[in-house]
Amino acid sequence: MLEIYNTLSRKKEPFKTIEPGKVSLYVCGMTVYDYCHVGHARVMVVFDTVVRYLRASDYDVTYVRNITDIDDKIIARANENGESITALTERCIGYMNEDSDALGVIRPDREPKATEHIEQIVTMINRLIEKDHAYAANGDVYYKVNSFEHYGKLSGKNIEDLRSGERVAIDEAKNDPLDFVLWKAAKPNEPGWDSPWGVGRPGWHIECSAMSTCELGNNFDIHGGGQDLQFPHHENEIAQSEGATGEHFANYWMHNGFVRVDDEKMSKSLGNFFTIRDVLKRYPAEVIRYFILTSQYRSPLNYSDDHLDNAKSALTRLYTALRGIKANEVADGGEYEQRFRTAMDDDFNTPVALSVLFDLTRELNANRNDQNKAAELAGILKRLSNILGLLANDPEQFLRGEAEQGDASLSTEQVQKYIEQRILARQQKDWEESDRLRDLLTEQGIILEDNAEGTSWRRK
C-alpha cells in the first residue's frame, strides 16, 4: 500500500483518497517572468513522477499546476523590459513549456492562471471579510492571522514566537504585524482589476487558495510544492481556504527538498542558480531527469557536474543493456516489479526504484544470448523505467548523442563515415590506419565497440 509523508502530520501515512480510485492533486507552479531554473525542474519532475506512478497504479488523477502571471516581480520585469505584462508572461510560459517538454514532463490536466480567476479571488476575500477573518484598509485587504485558531499547524510555527521574533515587517495599515495581504490597491501605472475595495490586484497566497478550490473543490487529496513554500505560502493558503469554506483543505501535503550548490540553497538572490536551458546545452534532458530522481524527493539535491556526469553514465548503462534487443510487452514484471512498487509505495523512493532497474539490467546482460529471455527482461526494464519517465528514447539515438546535437563535436553522419573508413582499413589489414581512425574518434568523445555483429558506437 502506498504511504506518503504528510508534512501536516510530520509522518508517513497510508494513502486514502477522498473518492475511491480518483486522486485530486494541486501543485504550486511557476511565477512566469524569466527562464526556469533547476529548482523548478525538480518540482516539475518530482510531481510528474508522482502522477505517472499513481496512474500506473490505476488511479484516475486530476493534476492541476497553477501559473502565477501577476505579482511584483512580473510587474518590475515588464517595466524593466519596456513591454506589457501579457507579452512577458506569455513568452515565459512558452519557455516553461519548452523546458518541461524537454524533461519528459507530461502537461498537467489543468493550468489555471491567476489573472483568469479574479472573480473567484474576490468572492473568497468577500467571504473572509464576512466571517471576520479579514478587513479592508485604505484599498488593501488583510487576513487576520489571530482569527484562525490553527495558524501554524503546517509549519509548526507559533504566532507568539513569530510576533516576538519580529520576522514580519511593520505596516501601519495592519491591525497586527503578522496579518498578510489578500488584495493590494493598485499604484499609479500598475495593472488592476475592479473590486469592492477599489482597483487593485490579488496577493500571491489568495491566488492559490482560489484556484485550487475552484479546480478541485474545498477538500482535495494532495497539495504539493517546493519546501520553500511551506511557510508562509502554504500556511497562509490553509488559513485562507479553511477560514473561507469551514472545511478541511488538503488531506496530504508533499514538499520536495531544495536544490543545493556548495551546501547552499540554489536561488536567484544568491546568484548560484542554473537555468534549465543552460544545463541542456551541456547534458541531454533525460540525464537531468535521471539526476533529479537519484535523490528521494524530500531530501536535498546537490547540483554538480560530477553528479550529472554520473547520471549520464548510469543512463548509458541502461541504454546499452537495451541495445540490439527487441523488447517484448510484459504484463507482470514478477519479482522486479514487486520490488520496484515496494520502493515507490514507500513515499515515492526513486533511488531504490532505480537500483531495481540496475539489478534487472545485470540479469538482462547475463541473458543476452537467450533471445526470448532477453526480450522479456528488456520489456520489463522499459515498462518500469517509463513509469519514471526514463528510457523513452531509442537506445542508438541516446548512445550516439543525437539527443544532444547542440554541442556534439561530430555529427552522426560524420561518425558513421569514419567508421566505414575504419572498417575498410581493417578489411585491407591496414592496422595503422584503423588505429588512427579509432584514436581520432576517441579524441572526439566517440567510443567504438567491436563485436561479432560489426562495430557499434556511442558518445562518451
Characteristic key phrases:
460 residues; alpha/beta; Rossmann fold; four-stranded parallel β-sheet; 3 domains; 15% strand; four-stranded antiparallel β-sheet; Four Helix Bundle (Hemerythrin (Met), subunit A)
Could you explain how this protein is built, in words?
The protein has helices at residues 38-56, 72-81, 85-102, 118-130, 159-164, 204-216, 230-245, 276-280, 285-293, 305-322, 334-345, 350-366, 371-387, 395-399, 412-427, 431-443; strands at 3-6, 11-14, 22-27, 60-65, 134-137, 140-143, 180-185, 200-202, 220-226, 250-256, 259-261, 264-265, 301-302, 446-451, 454-459. The chain is α/β, with parallel strands linked by helices and 460 residues long. The strands form 5 sheets. A 4-stranded parallel sheet has the order 4-3-9-10, sandwiched between helices. Strands 5-6-7-8 form a 4-stranded antiparallel sheet. The longest helix has 19 residues, at 38-56. The two termini are 41 Å apart. 40% of the residues are buried. Mean pLDDT is 92; it is low at 403-408.
